Amino acid sequence: MNLDMSVVVKYIPFLLEATFLTIKISVLAIAVSIIVGFVFAMFKLSQYKVLNKLSDLYVEIIRGVPLLVQLYLLYFGLPQLGIELSAFVASVLGLGLYAGSYVAEIFRGSIQSIPKGQMEAARSLGMSYFQAMRKVILPQAFRYSLPPMGNQLIITVKNSSLCSIITANELMHSTSRFASVNFAFLEFLLVASAIYLILTYAISLMVKYMEKKLSV
């Protein structure tokens, strides 16, 4: 076996630049997923059946279609309708909307895990429904949702590798390009694997730290 890691050394700055883009895409995507997920979680918990059905429809469709197909639709499909997105924007939207379907269920489950008596107690103190949600229910639900949200962030970072298919110049795209030029696929893939492992492990440590700080 001929393994020459020295061929990777001169490409490290470019791989780190691509890693930064991977982090940027993942962070923005998880921000989109939090917004979208919270909205559809509220729809699901609403007393209006139309909003309930809309939330169910979103979750079922997004979960039922592979992420790669959704990225293709955003990047290659929308231009046929006159809507052109850059690879970066398509990546953020694709990952964000996909993760949002899971985040919606995370938020819904976390909110429903809070005893109903707490909402009733808050309302009896004169709080409106929205005040009770903001000051009593959501802070507790956030703490409960932290571990699965951490897992979702890790999944989003790993899913970002699919964005290489739509030419987003993130870590996997750069790795594939440099590996094919130098005919050193094993070397570059080992380095990329190490970088992904470092990213996901750092996220795990961050989530554990936040759990510890927020523990009662």
Overall geometry: flat
Individual helix count: 9
Broad structural category: mainly alpha
The sequence of SSEs as H and E is HHHHHHHHH
What is the radius of gyration? 21 Å
Average pLDDT taken over every residue: 91
**Can you tell me the number of structural domains?**
1
Strand content is: under 5%
- The percent of residues in helical segments reads over 70%
CATH-scheme architecture: Orthogonal Bundle
Q: CATH superfamily, called what?
A: MetI-like
* CATH class group: Mainly Alpha
State the low-pLDDT regions, or none: none
Please count the beta strands (DSSP E, at least 2 residues each).
0
* CATH fold-level name: MetI-like fold
Taking the sheet with the most strands, its summary is:
none
